[in-house]
Amino acid sequence: MYNTIILDVDGTLIDTEKAVLKSLQKMLAIEYNITKDVEELEFVWGIPGSSSLPLLGIEDTEKGDILWNVYMKEFVDSISVFSGIRELLSTLHERNIQVGIVTSKTKIELEDDFVPFGLMKYLSFVVCADDTLLHKPNPEPIQKFLEISGADPRSSIYIGDTTYDYQCARDAGVSFGLAVWGAKKDHGIDAKHLFNNPNEVLEFVAE
């Protein structure tokens, strides 16, 4: 049983795949004259722009991130909360389970893409890309979460949708649960738990 639930955001709490990839595709074409199919950009999923943009030949990642966020606003209507997430967070809150997020989003991106859905009230601790020097798949983001929350890694679980999430959790010494509802594929991830829908998470937390 777990008493601390740590959640990823993109692909776990909210469905941002179309917005993230289509905005990047448009930004690259207009601002950098780089033409890519959406499928060619899927590798950026789950890591911050500071890590992914250099792989696309963009050296000024700060400028690239700003432009990406501008184009992201054009696709904001395609972002939605995954079915069952509101109910999961509400129930965890009622059971006094410590809940927080570790995300590759910057604070600004979280403010733009996630905060409007009204879910922040359920979160006790938040770790964004700005909060650590290293990012997923490095364990530092979850280590930061454990540091600020005082959570015991042995009774904590990180739930995410990518291999980056899994590697981050594994190397931070916490269990990993795959959010099957948001995962594009399991990529052979050796997750301790496979959650087909958010409600299944409740089976592993205290009443």
UniProtKB/TrEMBL annotation:
Pfam families referenced in this protein's UniProt entry, alphabetically: HAD_2
Record's protein name: Haloacid dehalogenase superfamily, subfamily IA, variant 1 with third motif having Dx(3-4)D or Dx(3-4)E
Organism, scientific name: Paenibacillus macquariensis
